[in-house]
Design goal:
Layout: H1 2-19, H2 25-45, H3 48-88, E1 102-107, E2 110-112, E3 115-117, E4 120-125
Antiparallel strand pairs: 1-4, 2-3
């Protein structure tokens, strides 16, 4: 009976893990955590309650770790996009009738003094 329960938990974890998308670490972490937690709960408790508690704790822990990985990936993509925009911004060269040297940058929307200031472009002077 115990072997059958362990086999069912392993198969459920495998099926859940294989059906999750490659881009969502939260779901993958929850699936792997559920399987590992269920096995650990069965080994420690030697009963169904231990298996279920282990699966629940493993699911929560795996989802938290996967979500942290998703957040890191999102932050990395945002930083890469910002770096590309910064590199693509043209630098204005000054001349006799040209504005002072500088360039336009995009300022993200933000709360200032209790008011929402939407995203806009701002001129940033550059020393030659």
């Amino acid at each position: 009976m115990k072997n059958m329960l362990i086999l069912m938990v392993l198969l459920a974890g495998l099926l859940t893990f294989s059906c999750s998308s490659t881009n969502y670490n939260t779901q993958k972490g929850a699936a792997v955590g559920a399987g590992v937690g269920a096995i650990a709960g069965q080994i420690i408790g030697h009963n169904t309650a231990g298996t279920l508690i282990g699966a629940a704790v493993g699911t929560l822990g795996g989802a938290l770790v996967g979500n942290a990985m998703d957040q890191q990936e999102t932050d990395r993509k945002i930083a890469a996009t910002a770096a590309e925009r910064q590199a693509a911004a043209p630098v204005v060269v000054s001349g006799p009738d040209a504005p002072p040297p500088g360039r336009w940058i995009e300022v993200p929307g933000q709360w200032v003094g209790g008011k929402w200031i939407p995203a806009h472009k701002a001129w940033v002077p550059v020393n030659p």
